[in-house]
Write a structure and sequence with these properties.
- The complex is a heterodimer of chains A (about 425) and B (about 60).
- By secondary structure, chain A is α/β, with parallel strands linked by helices.
- Chain A has three domains: about 15-120 and about 255-330, FAD/NAD(P)-binding domain (3-Layer(bba) Sandwich), CATH 3.50.50; about 120-255, FAD/NAD(P)-binding domain (3-Layer(bba) Sandwich); about 350-415, no CATH class.
- Chain A has nine helices and 26 strands.
- In chain A, strands 3-2-1-7-19 form a five-stranded parallel sheet, covered by helices on one side.
- In chain A, a hairpin with a 4-residue loop joins strand 5 and strand 6 (about 105).
- Chain B is built from two helices and four strands; from the N terminus they run E-H-E-E-H-E.
- The longest helix of chain B has 10 residues, at about 45-50.
- The chains are: A alpha/beta (about 425), B alpha+beta (about 60).
- The interface between A and B is medium-sized, with 20 and 17 residues.
- Bound molecules: flavin-adenine dinucleotide and iron/sulfur cluster.
Chain lengths: ~425, ~60
C-alpha cells in the first residue's frame, strides 16, 4: 500500500460505470491515488457530470441556468475517456468484460460501480402526462416548464426531502395550490424523527404548502387521449377517497438502485451493491462501488450496511475506493482503516435550511433540543441532537445560517466519538 | 496558488471551512471570507474544499 500518492507502475484499464458525481470523483481520485493506467467512464446520460442538488432548488426556481451545473473536472483527470449517452448493458465480472448497450464490449482490469439511483415510480395505472420526477436535467426542465404555466395546481406525492424541496420551490414560484401527500403522519419523519418533523411541517404550512398526511395514493384521474383514453392527469385519488385536483403531479417516493447491469454475477444487489468495509463488491479485489449505489457498512456506526443518498458520499466513497482499487491492481494488500465517513446533508426549503451532520436516523429514539425552541416563533432557529446509547450520533439544524453554524460546532464532537457497537 | 470563489454562487454553506480552515473562514454574520493567494503547501486542503463545496463555487486558477 503506497502511503503517499506515488505513481503506481501499472498499466491496464479502469472502467467507471456511471458518469455523474460519483463517477467523476472516482476518476479524479484514481489519479490522486497514483493510478497511471487508462480510465474510461461510461455514462447513460448524454451530459458530462453535473451537480444534482440545484435541480429541485435553484434550477427549478429559475435562479440558476442548466449550464452552471456542470462540474469542472480536475486537471489530473484530463486524459479520462468519456463514453456518454449509452449505458452499460451487462457485466461479466469473472471475465472482466462489460457489454455496452451500443453493442460494443469493453475489457477492464478494475471496475468502479457508480450507476446511482433512479426515481421509484408509483405502480398505479392511469394517465402519464403531467406526472413528473426529479433526478436529471431533463426532468427538472420539464417540471419547470409545467410549474410556470399560469394557475397550475400541484400535488407532490411523497414528503421526503425532494418532495419538500419541490413543494417549497413551487410555492416560491407563485403556485397557489401545492399539496404534499404522504402515508406517514409528518414530512421527513423517517430520517428526522417526530419533533423535528413537526417543526418542519409547521414551517411549510406557514409558508403556504398544504399537506394530506396519513393517506396514500390510490390512483389518478385524467382526460384526453385517443379513443377515450386518459392521457393527461387531472387529479390524484387518495386512499381515503378524497380527490385532489392536479395539473402537475410530482412523484418523489424514493429511489431504486441502478444495478440491473450487474445481474448474473452472484452479487448481493438487494437495495444497491453491497460492499465490504473497504467498498469492495462481491469479495472481488478489482471491483469497488461509490456514491448512492453503494451499500456499505460505516465503521463509525453499527456496521450495518446502508446506502446513503447524501451529496457528501460520492466524494468520500471515491477517495477511499480509489485508494483501495489502485493498491490492489498494483498487487498490494489494503491496509487502510475501514471506511468511516461522517455523513453530512443539507436541504434548502423556502427561506430556511436543514443542515445535518452524522447519522440522526440512528438516534431518532432520543432526540433532544440542543438550542432554540421548536414550538416558538416562526423563524426561530432550532438545533436537535440525536442520541443512541447516550452518545450523540447526529445533529440537525433547522433555520437560517446561524442554525447551520450552530450544528457545525458539534461536528468535531461527532468526529471524535468512539465507534458505536451494534 | 490562486483561489477564486464565485460569490454569486456561494451560499455560505461553510463546508470549505472544515476542509481548509487556513484559507476559508466565516465572519460574525456567517459570510465567507477567504485568502485568495494561499501558500502552495495548502494545495491539498484547498482542493478538498473545492470538492466539498455544494455550490461548486470554488475555482483553483493556478
Ligand atoms: C433533485 C435532487 C436534489 C438533491 N439535493 C440534495 C441536497 O440538497 N443535499 C444532499 O446532500 N444531497 C442531495 N441530493 C443527492 C445527491 O445529488 C446524490 O447523492 C448524488 O447525485 C449521487 O451521485 P452518484 O454519482 O452516486 O449517483 P447519480 O447522480 O444517480 O449518478 C449515476 C449516473 O449513472 C448513470 N447510469 C445509470 N445506469 C447506468 C448504466 N447501466 N450504465 C452507465 N451509466 C448508468 C445515470 O444515468 C447517472 O448519470 C439530491 C439529489 C437529487 C436527485
Ligand atoms: S462551501 Fe461553497 S458555498 Fe459554502 S461557504 Fe464555501 S464556497 Fe461558499
Amino acid at each position: 500500500m503506497p502511503a503517499a500518492p506515488s505513481p503506481v507502475p501499472v498499466t491496464g484499464r479502469v472502467v467507471v460505470a456511471g458518469a455523474s458525481m460519483g463517477g467523476l470523483r472516482a476518476a479524479e481520485q484514481l489519479r490522486a491515488a497514483g493510478w497511471t493506467g487508462a480510465i474510461t467512464v461510461v455514462g447513460d446520460e448524454p451530459h458530462m457530470p453535473y451537480n444534482r442538488p440545484p435541480l429541485s432548488k435553484e434550477v427549478l426556481a429559475g435562479k440558476a441556468s442548466f449550464d452552471s451545473l456542470a462540474f469542472t473536472p480536475k486537471a489530473a483527470a484530463a486524459d479520462v475517456e468519456w463514453r456518454l449517452g449509452s449505458p452499460v448493458a451487462a457485466a461479466r465480472l469473472a471475465e472482466r468484460t462489460l457489454d455496452l448497450a451500443d453493442g460494443s464490449t469493453l475489457a477492464f482490469d478494475g471496475l468502479v460501480v457508480a450507476t446511482g439511483m433512479r426515481p421509484r415510480r408509483l405502480g398505479c395505472p392511469g394517465p402519464t402526462e403531467g406526472r413528473h420526477t426529479v433526478r436529471t436535467l431533463a426532468d427538472a426542465q420539464a417540471l419547470r416548464d409545467a410549474l410556470t404555466r399560469p394557475g397550475v395546481r400541484v400535488v407532490v406525492i411523497g414528503a421526503g426531502f425532494i418532495g419538500c424541496e419541490v413543494a417549497a420551490t413551487a410555492v416560491g414560484l407563485g403556485v397557489r395550490e401545492v399539496t404534499v401527500v404522504d402515508p406517514l403522519p409528518l414530512p421527513m419523519v423517517g430520517p428526522l424523527g417526530e419533533a423535528p418533523a413537526r417543526a418542519l411541517l409547521r414551517r411549510h404550512e406557514e409558508r403556504g404548502v398544504r399537506f394530506a398526511l396519513g393517506t396514500g395514493v390510490a390512483g389518478f384521474e385524467g382526460v384526453g387521449g385517443a379513443e377515450g383514453g386518459e392521457d393527461r392527469v387531472t387529479g390524484v385519488v387518495l386512499s381515503d377517497g378524497r380527490v385532489l385536483p392536479a395539473d402537475v403531479v410530482v412523484e418523489s417516493v424514493g429511489s431504486v438502485a441502478n444495478t440491473e447491469w450487474l445481474d448474473g454475477n452472484r452479487l448481493d444487489l438487494t437495495d444497491g451493491a453491497l460492499t465490504d468495509e473497504q467498498l469492495r463488491v462481491g469479495g472481488l479485489p478489482y471491483v469497488v462501488a461509490v456514491g448512492d449505489v453503494a451499500r456499505f457498512p460505516n465503521a463509525r456506526y453499527d456496521g450495518v450496511p446502508r446506502r446513503v443518498e447524501h451529496w457528501s458520499i460520492p466524494t468520500d466513497t471515491a477517495k477511499h475506493a480509489a485508494k483501495v482499487l489502485t493498491a490492489q491492481l498494483a498487487g498490494f494488500e489494503v491496509c487502510l482503516p475501514a471506511f468511516a465517513p461522517l455523513p453530512t446533508f443539507w436541504s434548502d426549503q423556502h427561506d430556511f435550511r436543514l443542515q445535518s451532520f452524522g447519522a440522526p436516523a440512528l438516534g431518532k429514539g432520543d432526540v433532544r433540543v440542543l438550542d432554540g425552541d421548536p414550538d416558538g416563533d416562526r423563524d426561530g432557529d432550532v438545533l436537535f441532537g440525536y442520541h443512541r446509547g447516550g452518545h450523540l450520533v447526529g445533529v440537525v439544524a433547522l433555520g437560517g445560517q446561524a442554525a447551520a453554524m450552530g450544528a457545525a460546532k458539534y461536528r468535531a464532537q461527532l468526529l471524535k466519538q468512539p465507534a458505536l457497537t451494534a | 496558488m490562486k483561489v477564486v470563489v464565485d460569490m454569486n454562487k456561494c451560499q455560505d454553506h461553510g463546508q470549505c471551512v472544515f476542509a481548509s480552515p487556513d484559507v476559508f473562514s466565516m465572519d460574525d454574520e456567517g459570510r465567507l471570507l477567504y485568502v485568495s493567494d494561499p501558500d502552495e503547501s495548502l494545495r491539498d486542503e484547498v482542493e478538498e474544499a473545492a470538492d466539498v463545496c455544494p455550490l461548486q463555487a470554488i475555482r483553483i486558477e493556478a
